[in-house]
Amino acid sequence: MTAADLLAASGRFSIRPGLSDAELAAVEHEFAFSFADDHRAFLAGGLPFGRGWPDWRDGDRAALRERLALPVDGVLFDVVQNDFWYGGWGPRPASEEAALDVARTGLVTAPRMIPVYAHRYLPAGRGAHGHPVMSIYQTDIVCYGNDLEDFLHREFGIGPGSGGEPARPTVPFWSRLVL
């Protein structure tokens, strides 16, 4: 069963008809990203809605933009408020403003993270699939499932899951922050 089938069969969430290819393309164009292949298939199979689920069809566009910005904004918050610094950015500049500039520049190369549910994300990118679903709250990052199906099992107890194998981080930059 696919992740969309598992979610629908559970009966635990309201599911609207999936997004059409034209709707998916319109969302991708509007927000300037491409869904990963498995995320795209999930949303085409049925659009979950209600608390926590992003409503890509009828949702408030400003709220969707905020959710898309949260992973990067959270890292930048931690740079300023919690002295976070990623070693891959080189030495931390002395001034807060310079540190933010370096962090912003470094985050440009990090894969864009797309909300799946609440603060659970998958990386953007056509041709990509099978990445873990990651919980991202500032720099507190945890893998919440090896893929969408495993995420549904771990988050909601739906489906068989991956047999207890630990989720493996695979997403450049974000995986380096996994606890």
Topology:
Blueprint (H helix, E strand, L loop, with lengths): L2 H8 L3 E3 L4 H11 L5 H9 L1 E3 L11 H21 L14 H12 L5 E5 L2 E4 L9 E5 L2 E6 L2 H9 L23
Antiparallel strand pairs: 1-2, 3-4, 4-5, 5-6
Which structural class fits the helix and strand makeup?
alpha+beta
Largest sheet: 4 strands, antiparallel
Backbone shape = globular
Q: How many H/I helical runs?
A: 6
Alpha carbon gap, first and last residue? 30 Å
Q: List the uncertain runs.
A: none
Helix content: 25-40%
State the oligomer.
single chain
Q: How many strands? A: 6
| Rg calculated over all Cα atoms | 17 Å
> How are helices and strands ordered from N to C?
HEHHEHHEEEEH
Mean pLDDT: 94
Instruction: State which percent range the strand residues make up.
Output: 5-15%
Biggest sheet strand line-up: 3-4-5-6
Q: How many domains make up the coordinates?
A: 1
Q: What do these coordinates show?
A:
The chain has 179 residues and is of the alpha+beta class. The protein has 6 helices and 6 strands, in the order H-E-H-H-E-H-H-E-E-E-E-H. The strands form 2 sheets. A 4-stranded antiparallel beta sheet has the order 3-4-5-6. The longest helix is centred in the middle third of the chain and has 21 residues, at 61-81. The two termini are 30 Å apart. The model has no long low-confidence stretch (mean pLDDT 94).
